[in-house]
Amino acid sequence: MSETASISTGIAARYATAIFELARDGKSIASIESDVDALEGVLADSADFRDLINSPVYTRDAQSGAIRAIAKKMDLSANTANLLGLMAAKRRLFVLPQLVARLRTLVAEEKGEITADVTAAKELTKAQQDKLAKTLKASMGKDVKIKLSVDESLIGGLVVKVGSKMIDTSVSSKLKNLQNAMKEAG
Predict the structure, then answer these.
(1) Which of 4, 12, 58, 97 has the highest CB neighbour number within 10 Å of its CB?
(2) Structural domains in the chain plus CATH codes
């Protein structure tokens, strides 16, 4: 990890811990989770928002004003809106993606959940996702939240990552293994 990334992660972790503890003390973890969902969505969907939080061209006042308006429009909780305002005033909005990721982890730990990053060859139905979550819960001992992405190059099957564990049942992986075995034999 680069030094800059390490510093950003450290800053984000401190902010995330502070707002999470406020939410836990105020019994408003659900509102923080809702805010995290909303912020993840805007970070993924809006290039303008990403530019706003990363560009040094915007002044503190411009960032602060824009963040206040965005927080109000997104109907974020008071704690989250105040945190974003503080981050804008301190020129720390660039750590927002790391903050959101850390908050997601803290909320999941509080709820006794783990997240499984699942890559599938095609979109999974709700029933398939539920069955996969149930199977993973049986082996992991915790509730599992599925974070699904689609990669058609897998041809078929799944790649499941939970923490440091990875299960690859994709057809493309099996074909590569077969190809390697044939090279070794020939």
Answers:
(1) 12
(2) 3-109 (1.10.520.20), 113-185 (3.40.30)
